[in-house]
């Protein structure tokens, strides 16, 4: 059993018990997050699509923590100007565990 949910501008394929990383949300560990925009659902035999979303379907997840991604190096360089700038960036994300997929 799986569902495809819309989180911001990303579509995520989720299943019960799965742990995944989503964009940062201001929530502490143990809080519950509900994804209301379910685009599709499958129970193994039949597949249901929404137009654009399934009415009354939702996915419930529990926040397990907050983390940071790998460091990305950003370099700016201008030729013949002796100008070099090196910065880094680490994206913050929220870890969630999918608890339940509900249909209407």
Mean pLDDT: 95
Order of neighbouring strands in the sheet with most strands: 2-1-5-6
Which secondary-structure class do the elements indicate?
Answer: mainly beta
Instruction: Give me the number of helical elements.
Output: 0
- Estimated helix fraction: under 10%
| Principal-axis shape | elongated
Determine the strand fraction and express it as a percent band: over 45%
Features:
single chain, 104 residues, mainly beta, four-stranded antiparallel β-sheet, 10 strands, 62% strand, elongated
Task: Give a written overview of the molecule.
This protein has strands spanning 2-7, 10-15, 19-23, 32-35, 38-42, 47-49, 58-68, 72-78, 83-89, 92-102. By secondary structure, the protein is mostly beta strands. The chain has a domain at 2-65 and 95-102. A 4-stranded antiparallel sheet has the order 2-1-5-6, with no helix packed on it. A 4-stranded antiparallel sheet has the order 3-10-7-4, with no helix packed on it. The mean pLDDT is 95.
């Amino acid at each position: 059993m799986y569902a495809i949910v819309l989180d911001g501008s990303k579509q995520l394929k989720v299943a019960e018990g799965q742990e995944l990383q989503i964009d940062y949300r201001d929530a502490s560990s143990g809080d519950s997050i509900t994804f209301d925009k379910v685009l599709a659902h499958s129970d193994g035999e039949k597949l249901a699509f929404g137009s654009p979303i399934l009415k009354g379907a939702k996915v419930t997840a529990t926040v397990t923590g907050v983390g940071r991604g790998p460091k990305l190096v950003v370099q700016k360089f201008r030729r013949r100007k002796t100008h070099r700038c090196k910065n880094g960036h680490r994206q913050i994300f929220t870890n969630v565990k999918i608890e339940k997929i509900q249909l209407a």
